[in-house]
Amino acid sequence: MARSKIQEQVDCSILTPKPILQASGDVYRFTDFMVKDISSGKCFCADYLITAGALNLFCMRS
């Protein structure tokens, strides 16, 4: 007897309780540096761009 796999998707908000954010320091010390692409107007987290650039340099040298 074959069983069928049924997958369901639920669209809802993801809410984190305030005590968890306070414990992690995100309420009072949340300071991610952002950069803006002047041609497209999109904003990006600087740490992701730095990581991507470093990986790109590393891969080019390998």
Write up what this structure looks like.
By secondary structure, the protein is of the alpha+beta class. It has a domain at 32-62. 37% of the residues lie in helices and 10% in strands. It has two helices and two strands; from the N terminus they run H-E-E-H. Strands 1-2 form a two-stranded antiparallel sheet. A hairpin with a 6-residue loop joins strand 1 and strand 2. It is extended and about 50 Å long. The termini are far apart. 0% of the residues are buried.
Which descriptors would you attach to this protein?
62 residues; 2 helices; extended
Describe the global form: extended
Return Rg in Å. 20 Å
The helix/strand series, from N terminus to C terminus, equals HEEH
| Quaternary state of the chains | single chain
The portion of residues assigned to helices is 25-40%
Distance between the termini: 52 Å
Poorly predicted ranges: none
- Going by helix content, strand content and strand pairing, the class is alpha+beta
Tell me the major beta sheet: 2 strands, antiparallel
Secondary structure elements and pairings:
Elements: H1 18-24, E1 34-36, E2 43-45, H2 46-61
Antiparallel strand pairs: 1-2
GO cellular component, one term: mitochondrion
InterPro entries: aa-tRNA-synth_II/BPL/LPL, Gly-tRNA_synthase/POLG2
GO molecular function: glycine-tRNA ligase activity
